[in-house]
Amino acid sequence: MFFDRPDSGELAVLVHLDLSSGQEPEDPREFEELVLSAGGDPVTMVLGHRDAPHAKYFVGTGKLQELQALVEEHRAELVIFNHTLSPSQERNLEKALKCRVLDRTGLILDIFAQRARTFEGKLQVELAQLKHMSTRLVRGWTHLERQKGGIGLRGPGETQLETDRRLLRGRITNIERRLAKVRTQREQGRRSRLRASIPTVSLVGYTNAGKSTLFNRITGADVYVQDQLFATLDPTMRRVELDDIGAVILADTVGFISHLPHKLVEAFRATLEEAANSSLLLHVIDSAADERLHYIEQVEEVLDEIGAGELPQLRVFNKTDLIGMAPRIDRDDDGTPVAVWLSAQTGDGVELLFEAVTELLGEAMIEGDLILAPTDGRLRARLFEQHAVSAESYRDDGCSTLSVRIPQSDLMRILSGLNLGFEQLHWDGEPPEEHQVAGNF
């Protein structure tokens, strides 16, 4: 498996073809960055054009001869295609080139294997690898593809390949069972946050857009940050406090990429569900990237795939320091924030992000002077616990007046716990409107 990797960078010949099919072409520059992120050492890139892939070798016979010469010239150990190869194409190429051949999916899986740090992350990567490799097992077992025979070697009538596939299916089932348990635990955590009315804000975006840098800037955490693709793999969550909102859970997620392999989307569904169940998505965009519009489209596609396409979203254009733009908030015709321009590296504009998130997450706020009798001590204590009281004064009749500002949901939860109704509260002057909305939610 890919976990057994050599320590030094492997000399690699890269192959990128422009195909005349309707599918959007991959980016050769991004492909090279992926290889570097995997620890490879690209020696050359072979470019070409075909109307359709060759059935046997993906490339034509002329390009195959060119690849054979380059592999021999550079003594390359690996040939990597910026495309998805069929198992038979991979085997035929390895036989012709006499070195290992890897496709785009295998390359991304290799990077994920290196980045996985938590137990859950390693399980997810292994599941994706096993599903990918299950169709390619034959290349490793061709020398054993006959039934066992001889004294003491008579088995259950299986070839070695069949035995290995059976063991592989058992391992996949075992990992899926353990990940289902992780998914259940995550669901329990989400339900408990829902009961406590703590919203979740997830950072999503194209890989290397600066999500982890922004996450560290906001939370003061020490998440691994590197200028490479897929620097973050394991999800990280932190609790932050926002003015007028209170506690918010901020989640940093794995970056997306063009044509993200479905095996990875399936394997990381437990992690991506965190984004799919968020109150708000912060779509982090590299404002300095030439292909930023394409990257935005790719992220939107993955969000639709995981069921998060309809969630409220705020676009965060990062790296403004690289394009010399001042931080700002973009609003729609109703005055609602739709985008924030900032630099996570320098911190310029982060306060504007707080302002926009507060507006978007802001809900019905109850604000007014509440009159409490001496017997309302429990209600008074709950309001102080929620930091909802800005001032308190006492009247001649023994009652107290509290200047209160509190989200409607928090007040209703307090009243429900005390078996009180909103109509039972006494206010100094005009009662505040019960559904005074200060945001979109």
UniProtKB/TrEMBL annotation:
Domain of life assignment: Bacteria
Quaternary state and interactors: Monomer. Associates with the 50S ribosomal subunit.
GO molecular function: hydrolase activity
Function: GTPase that associates with the 50S ribosomal subunit and may have a role during protein synthesis or ribosome biogenesis.
Annotated keywords: Cytoplasm, GTP-binding, Hydrolase, Magnesium, Metal-binding, Nucleotide-binding
Designated name of the protein: GTPase HflX
Family to which the UniProt record says this protein belongs: Belongs to the TRAFAC class OBG-HflX-like GTPase superfamily. HflX GTPase family.
PANTHER family: GTP-BINDING PROTEIN 6-RELATED, GTP-BINDING PROTEIN HFLX
Ranges of residues in domain Hflx-type G: 199-365
Source organism per UniProt: Gilvimarinus algae
UniProt subcellular location: Cytoplasm
Taxonomic lineage from the root: Bacteria, Pseudomonadati, Pseudomonadota, Gammaproteobacteria, Cellvibrionales
UniProt feature coiled coil, ranges: none
Gene name in the database record: hflX
